[in-house]
Predict the structure.
Amino acid sequence: MKQLLTKQRLLAALAAAALALGCGTSDTIPGSPTHDSAADLADLQEYVAIGNSLTAGYQSGAWGNPEHVAASYPNLIARQLGIAGFKQVSMAGTGLGFSGVTPVGNMVVNFDSTGTAALSYTTVDPANLAAMAAGAPVDFDFNAPRNLGIPGITLMHAMGAPLGVYAAGNPYAAFYTNASSSAKTQVQLAAEAGANFITCWLGNNDVLGYVTSGGTGAITPSATFQASLSGALGMLANTAAYLAVVNIPAVTAIPFVTYMNATIIAQLDALGLPHAVYAVVDGATTALPLGGGNYVLLSAATAMSADPTLGASPLNPLPDAYVLDSAETAAAQAAVEDFNARIAAGVTALNAGRDHDALLVDMNAFFNHVVAHGVTYGGETFTAQFVEGGIFSLDGVHPTSLGYAIVANEILETINAGWGFDVELVDPAEFIGVTGGLGSVEIPAELPDFGSVVELFQH
Amino acid sequence: MTKRVACLLAGACLLAVPVPRLLAAGFAIHEQSGVAMGTAGAYGAAQGAASLFYNPAGLAGLEGLHAELGLNIISPSTDFTGPTDRPTFGKTAMESQTFTPVDLYLSGRLSEQARWGCGLFTYMGLGTKWADDWAGRTVSEEIDLKTLTVNPALAFKLGDKTRLGLGLDLMWGQALMSKDSYTGYPFNGYVDAKIDGTGLGYGWNMGVQRQVSPELTLGLSYRSGMTLSADGDATFELQNVSNVSHQALLDSMFPDTPVNLDLDIPDLVIAAAEWKPADLLDGKLTWRGDVVFTRWNVYQSLDIDFETNTPGLADSHSPKEYQNTWAFRTGLEYGLNDRLTLRGGWYYEQNAVQDHLVEPSLPDAERNGLSLGASWQVNEDLALDAYFLQVLLQDRVSSFAALPGGYDSDIPIFGLSARKEF
């Protein structure tokens, strides 16, 4: 269990990445360079992105690492649009994450002398804590072009929570909070930013927290989601900006959910045991068959490696928060379906009387395709597998830089098709093999406290 | 005699624990007597101790000292199917509760023309409870409205054929409401909000009865509406606290605070007839028919004033927009012999809550009720009554925005009462 990754597998992935790089841009890379009309792209120069950690460029358990946020999808889109001076929060060192309530830098992989890989957090740069405590500077520029992503924010808070209040519960919001913004919500800031192009990717956290907490957290009530969505889309549509709304990808197909089952099953097979763990489900210890919608979450890794009997005996069941049972999986999937139906209907409803239709970016369909088939660049297929798949970063929830490049391209393709632009796509080769933290060889460390990693996903 | 009355009253005060009930449309309760409910609640032109509730003029014809003590056993059930705006949804059963409200009536003679009476009963009440984590948790988890009305009255004979009754209503009420508020922080998802308050309201009632022929009596009674002004406390409890900064934030957003709220109680009008055909079945048959009007449109909204407001806690305004209702109640009573009397009845009542406002704290619906009842005259002074009433509510489809879905309810009620003449 300690060997979450082997050096061999990682090296194989890195070698493949290097190979892909060596091959250069192949014809399978979408969007070969084209010459855009400057007049067209001028319509999109005042770009504002709102959203949560995915928009902010969160990666490997932290936000703000300059290398990571440079690969945020809004920054990549801005780059492809030729926007000069796209602004986003960037921090010192390895950014800012939280292990429980302890501030940390992003996660990295370490190898010990035997070649065993382990994940650990880096140390947080004190400058980031000082910046968080200070809040946004007085002259913070909220105007387009800007990334306004706030890790952890739900649609309800994006629409309804003034930053000054909200920042007390989400330290990441402090980076945007000053006297001029404290009474405003994230959506309001976007609507007032003078944007002519807005991307909005919200709603993930309205169901993701329920999943990463093993069903002990909450899914936003449907009616609350609808009210917040209607409010947010209405406010954004009032700006007359080009508006692209991204929907919610399947939250139960991320490595945080899917990774552990296979690892545990391999161990059970080696012992000739049936594929089941003991876990507390709805207050009762249950033999939970692995598969069929039942998952042991990545958050269980630390505790399971520290205590080999955890989950192996009815006397030592896995806590409820470490497992997602089939009913919880079904509830999360139903919520994604429900929220996406509301998002689709909301976007369609905006279009009456607008010069250019609001667009729905169906990230859910795209992600499902990636989960089923992977994506291929330069002959190399990248998948939704934990770390080694190349798309998901070390926290098992957020993409790698390569993953964000793929996201940016999906949005750009929708924009090109929907509004008739011809924006050049990001060349993913740039990000292959540079997934954050991978390959750094430092002093061997223990596994990080994955239990408290759960906590950070609310950010 | 007076001492016995005092004992009875004191005993009744202990017994008559106010209980929530979910019976008539809205949150009104027409079930106030084991005799009256045998004929589905048609009693406005009848004469008995329970006339105190239905029409106080009915006391004027009573001789001697009368007491009636009744117990009702009520087990409402509701299934909710929804929320129907979700891709997948299911059926949720309301948690089962049994309510056992008690009613007590006393009346006696003051003079040849005048009678006194005093009633203790619950004619407004509501009790619904849903599981803590159910789909409608942000709409309602529990509501428990208890009231107890003390109703002293006087009744007079005006000549041989006309009777008049007048009374005062003093209503004590307690309201408990509980639901969850979503915080927007998935890991500390819900704040459990509870409001508990008590208050008093004042009103009056009056009624007339007229014997238009030896066989036919007509009655008309009115019970005034009132406002129950309640003061109490709102308390907020965070669930699944996993983050100290969230705890601090949510504590500041949801401070425990005094609250006050006004609950509007509707006026009630009953027009009634009682017919005892002398030539039919040896005059042993009695027909009763009541038309009941409830002025529910006084209940336009439920407004809760939190003394402390924060960005998370604004005063609450819930539109109710109830509609006035009509009910038709009728039944037959047949004296089988000197000891046994049989009753049967039917009623129909409109619903008070509009489709787009039906929610789980009161899954109101148009309804029919079928009743059977019997009395056994134990001796000259004592009679025992029993009834069974099956209330059949129509399936209700709610378009309430926060929780659209279907409600399927039914309410069986048993009642027992004892009547003593002193």
User: Anything to note?
Assistant: DSSP finds three helices and 22 strands in chain B. The helical segments of chain B are 2-15, 51-54, 244-253.
